[in-house]
Automatic annotation (TrEMBL):
This is High affinity choline transporter 1. It comes from Gambusia affinis. It is a multi-pass membrane protein. It catalyses: choline(out) + n Na(+)(out) = choline(in) + n Na(+)(in). High-affinity Na(+)-coupled choline transmembrane symporter. Functions as an electrogenic, voltage-dependent transporter with variable charge/choline stoichiometry. Choline uptake and choline-induced current is also Cl(-)-dependent where Cl(-) is likely a regulatory ion rather than cotransported ion. Plays a critical role in acetylcholine (ACh) synthesis by taking up the substrate choline from the synaptic cleft into the presynaptic nerve terminals after neurotransmitter release. It is found in: Presynaptic cell membrane. Keywords: Glycoprotein, Ion transport, Membrane, Neurotransmitter biosynthesis, Sodium, Sodium transport, Symport, Transmembrane, Transmembrane helix, Transport. Homooligomerizes at cell surface. Interacts with SEC14L1; may regulate SLC5A7.
Length: 596
C-alpha cells in the first residue's frame, strides 16, 4: 500500500489545527458562566448562552454545512439523470434555517430551554420525552456514523491509507476536544471548518475547470457530451417524490438538537433569529464550489486523466466525486491542500452530533427522568461518559456496517414525521396532551415504516398510490434485486397524519374524560384530569391551592435567564390574564443589551 507523504502531511496539519482550536476554545472559556452562577453542565450544553454574532453565524451555518453537505451536493450534481435539479440540500436546508428562524428560534430561546426535548417533557411528561428521544438520538448517531464513514473513504483517496485507522483517529480527535470544551469547542472549530472548506475548495476549482480533460461546463449543462446534462431534470412522474424530499429537507431540518443547540446558545432570542438567517445565506454560498465540482466531474473525459478509462459513476464511486476531482484534475499541492481542508471539515462535523446526543441523554433522560436530585458535577460526568460512548458507537457503526447511510435516511425521515409535528404542537397548538402525542407517534412511525426503505432493502407493507418497481444492484452481493419505489409523497402525508392525529386524539381524550364518558381513574397518563385541578407548573414547583409540592420532572433554570413563571414552563391557560401580560412585558427580549 502506497502512502502519499504530501497528503499525510496535509491531513496532519489540518487535524492539528482543528485540535488546537478546540483545546484553545475550552481553555479560553473554562470559567464562562461562573460569575452568573451558571451550572457547568449547562455551559457545556449551550455555551453559557453568550455566543456572539461572529462565532454564532459560523456555527449556525455549520449546523448542516459539513463534509456530508459538500460531498452530497457534488455527488447529486454529477449523477446522470439527477443533476442540479435533484441537488436539493442547499435550498432545502437554507429554507429550513429561514423557517426555523421565523417561527421556532424565538419561542425556544425565550423560554430558556436547554435542549430540544424540554418542551416535550414539560407538556407531555418524562415518559413521552423518553420516547421522542429515540428518533432524535438515532438521527444524531447515524449522522455521525455516516460522516465518519464518508471521511474514511475520502482519506483513502487522498493518502491510500487504511480506512479503519483514519476513521478511528478522526473520531478520537473530535471526541477529545468535545470532551474538554463542549459547545465552545464545537463552535470555534466550526469557524475553522468553514474557512477550510471555503478556501480549500475555491483554490481547487479554477485548476479543475482549466484542466485539459474538462469540457466547458456551460455546454455540458444543457447538452450531452460524456453523460446526461448536469443541469438535470424532473420527470413528470417523479414530481411528487421531488416535492416530498424537498419538504423533508425544509421542515425536517428543523427538529434537530444540532440546530437548537445553536439557537439556545445565542445571547438573546433576537440573536437566535438573526443567526438563523445568516446561516441560511451561508448554506447557499458554501454550496457553490460543490455544485461546480459536481459539474466538472460530469464534464470530464476520464480517459485523459490519471483516474482511468471508466468514469467514477461506472465504478460506483459517484459518492466520492469531490475528492476524485481534486485528486486527479488539480496539481498535487492544490489537491492535497483542498482535500486536507475538506477532511478536517468532515471530521469536525461529527462533534456537534455527538454533543447533541449526549446533551439530550444527560439532561432529558438521566436527570429529568431518573435522577432529578443529581448534582451538577454528576451531570457533567454523565455527559463526558456519553460523549465517549456515543462517539465510540458512531465509530463502530461507520466501520462495521455498509448500510449506515440507509439507517441515517430512515432515522432522518422519522425525525420529520414524528418529532416535527409534535414540536409544532407543543409550541403553537393549545390543548394537546400525552394521549394525542402517543397516537401521533404511532401514526407517523407506522405510516413511514410501512412505505419501506430501498437503501436498507426494507420492503413496504403499505403500497401508496403510484408505486413502482425497479432493478437495483445489491451493494454487498452485486446481484440484481427488485425494489419498490414509492412515488407518492408518503413522508409528508405521514407527517401531516401525525400532526392531525395529535390534535384529534388530544381533544377526544379531553372530551371523554371531562364529560364523564370515561372515568377519571382511567386517566393513567395524568394528561387530562390532573390538568383541570388549577395547577400552575414551572420548572421547580407545582402550586396547587396554596400548597407547594416539589416537582422533580423539570430542572431549575437560573434567574439570570429571566425565565419567569408565565414565560417558561407554565400552562398559560391557568394563569390570570394580568399575570400573563405582566410576565410578557418583563420577558420581552432586548436586542441592544445583548450586543457586544
Amino acid at each position: 500500500m502506497t502512502i502519499h507523504a504530501e497528503g499525510l502531511v496535509a491531513i496532519a496539519v489540518f487535524y492539528l489545527l482543528i485540535l488546537f482550536v478546540g483545546i484553545w476554545a475550552a481553555w479560553k472559556n473554562k470559567h464562562s458562566g461562573e460569575a452568573e452562577g451558571t451550572d457547568r453542565s449547562e455551559t457545556i450544553m449551550v455555551g453559557g448562552r453568550d455566543i456572539g454574532l461572529f462565532v454564532g453565524g459560523f456555527t449556525m451555518t455549520a449546523t448542516w454545512v459539513g463534509g456530508g453537505y459538500i460531498n452530497g451536493t457534488a455527488e447529486y450534481v454529477y449523477l446522470p439523470d439527477y443533476g442540479l435539479a435533484w441537488a436539493q440540500a442547499p435550498f432545502g436546508y437554507a429554507l429550513s434555517l429561514v423557517v426555523g428562524g421565523l417561527f421556532f428560534a424565538k419561542p425556544m430561546r425565550s423560554r430558556g430551554y436547554v435542549t430540544m426535548l424540554d418542551p416535550f417533557q414539560q407538556i407531555y411528561g418524562k415518559r413521552m420525552g423518553g420516547l421522542l428521544f429515540i428518533p432524535a438520538f438515532m438521527g444524531e448517531i447515524f449522522w455521525s456514523a455516516a460522516i465518519l464513514s464518508a471521511l474514511g473513504a475520502t482519506l483513502s483517496v487522498i493518502v491510500d491509507m487504511n480506512i479503519k485507522m483514519s476513521v478511528v483517529i478522526s473520531a478520537l480527535i473530535a471526541i477529545f476536544y468535545t470532551l474538554v470544551g463542549g459547545l465552545y469547542s464545537v463552535a470555534y472549530t466550526d469557524v475553522v471548518q468553514l474557512f477550510c472548506i471555503f478556501i480549500g475548495l475555491w483554490i481547487s476549482v479554477p485548476f479543475a475547470l482549466t484542466n485539459a480533460a474538462v469540457s466547458d461546463i456551460t455546454v455540458t449543462a444543457v447538452k450531452r457530451v460524456y453523460q446526461s446534462p448536469w443541469r438535470g431534470s424532473i420527470k413528470k412522474e417523479d414530481t411528487w417524490m421531488w416535492v416530498d424530499n424537498f419538504c423533508l429537507l425544509m421542515l425536517g431540518g428543523i427538529p434537530w438538537q444540532v440546530y437548537f443547540q445553536r439557537v439556545l446558545s445565542a445571547s438573546s432570542a433576537t440573536y437566535a433569529q438573526v443567526l438563523s438567517f445568516l446561516a441560511a445565506f451561508g448554506c447557499l454560498v458554501m454550496a457553490v464550489p460543490s455544485v461546480l465540482i459536481g459539474a466538472i466531474g460530469a464534464s470530464t473525459d476520464w480517459n485523459k486523466t490519471s483516474y482511468g478509462a471508466e468514469a467514477p459513476k461506472d465504478k460506483d464511486e459517484a459518492a466520492m466525486i469531490l475528492p476524485i476531482v481534486l485528486q486527479h484534475l488539480c496539481p498535487p499541492f492544490v489537491s492535497f491542500f483542498g482535500l486536507g481542508a475538506v477532511s478536517a471539515a468532515v471530521m469536525s462535523s461529527a462533534d456537534s452530533s455527538i454533543l447533541s446526543a449526549s446533551s439530550m441523554f444527560a439532561r432529558n433522560i438521566y436527570q429529568l427522568a431518573f435522577r432529578q436530585s443529581a448534582s451538577d458535577r454528576e451531570i457533567v460526568w454523565v455527559m463526558r461518559i456519553t460523549i465517549f460512548v456515543f462517539g465510540g458507537l458512531a465509530t463502530l457503526m461507520a466501520l462495521s456496517t455498509g448500510t449506515v447511510y440507509g439507517l441515517w435516511y430512515l432515522s432522518s425521515d422519522l425525525v420529520y414525521v414524528i418529532i416535527f409535528p409534535q414540536l409544532l404542537s407543543v409550541l403553537f397548538v393549545k390543548g394537546t396532551n400525552t394521549y394525542g402525542s402517543v397516537a401521533a407517534y404511532l401514526f407517523g412511525l407506522v405510516l413511514r415504516i410501512g412505505g419501506g426503505e430501498p437503501y436498507l432493502y426494507l420492503p413496504p407493507f403499505i403500497y401508496y398510490p403510484g408505486w413502482t418497481t425497479e432493478q437495483r444492484k445489491h451493494q454487498d452481493s452485486d446481484e440484481m434485486e427488485e425494489i419498490v419505489i414509492q412515488r407518492f409523497p408518503f413522508k409528508t402525508v405521514s407527517m401531516l397524519a401525525s400532526f392531525f392525529g395529535n390534535f384529534v386524539f388530544s381533544y377526544l381524550a379531553k372530551y371523554l374524560f371531562e364529560s364523564g364518558k370515561i372515568s377519571h381513574k382511567y386517566d393513567f397518563l395524568d394528561a387530562v384530569v390532573s390538568s383541570r385541578n388549577g395547577e400552575i407548573m414551572d420548572k421547580t414547583t407545582l402550586v396547587t391551592r396554596g400548597n407547594n409540592i416539589g416537582l422533580s420532572e423539570l430542572a431549575p433554570v437560573k434567574p439570570r435567564l429571566s425565565v419567569t413563571l408565565a414565560a417558561a414552563f407554565t400552562r398559560r391557560d391557568t394563569l390570570p390574564e394580568e399575570t400573563v401580560e405582566e410576565e410578557e412585558e418583563e420577558f420581552s427580549p432586548d436586542f441592544s443589551h445583548n450586543e457586544e
